[in-house]
Design brief:
The protein is α/β, with parallel strands linked by helices and about 160 residues long. It folds into two domains: about 70 residues, Helix Hairpins (Orthogonal Bundle); about 80 residues, Roll (Chitinase A, domain 3). Strands 5-4-3-7-6 form a five-stranded mixed β-sheet. It has a two-stranded parallel sheet with strand order 1-2. Strand 3 and strand 4 form a beta hairpin. The two termini are about 25 Å apart.
């Protein structure tokens, strides 16, 4: 059974998304199906087929969300080691070739936000950083090529 890691805020966000999808299926899609059903012969009713396909897609999405929720593990600051890159950390790295520094927050899948430098613990960069310390040099294969980084700082993400 696969485990999914979340901050408490991420876990709550997932719970709300499940509730939202459930409401959408029960209310909006059910109404679409009922309206389409009123248009007569269901064998040749494109509107009905479309609504049923939409329902199936949302049911599949709901199943995936519920699996993540059922197998969720909430990370807390007190559970995390100090000075080592893990889930729930803010990591500053320096690309060795350019000297450019970048800061990333490593969180669970459902909490990624590239615009705010929040990456998934399952991303190639985060996986390469995991369990390393300040001063360690890591090499990671990224879509834009292989890069070497030195870990400059490690801190706790304050929202956990």
């Amino acid at each position: 059974m696969k485990q999914y890691y979340f901050t408490e805020a991420g876990y709550e966000k997932l719970r709300k998304e499940i509730e939202s999808v459930e409401r959408y299926i029960k209310n909006d899609i059910a109404k679409e199906i009922a309206t389409a059903r009123e248009h007569g012969d269901l064998r040749e009713n494109a509107e009905y087929e479309s609504a049923k396909n939409k329902q199936a897609n949302y049911m599949a999405k709901l199943g995936l969300l519920q699996e993540r929720f059922q197998n969720a593990r909430i990370i807390r600051k007190s559970d995390l080691p100090d000075g080592i890159v893990t889930l729930g950390k803010v990591v500053t790295i320096k690309e060795l070739a350019s000297g450019q520094e970048e800061k990333y927050i490593i969180l669970g899948d459902g909490e990624t936000d590239i615009e705010n430098s929040i990456i998934s613990y399952q991303s190639p960069l985060a996986r390469a950083l995991m369990n390393h310390k300040i001063g360690d040099v890591i090499e990671v294969k990224l879509p834009r090529g292989t890069k070497k980084y030195e870990i400059q700082k490690i801190g706790f993400y304050e929202e956990i």
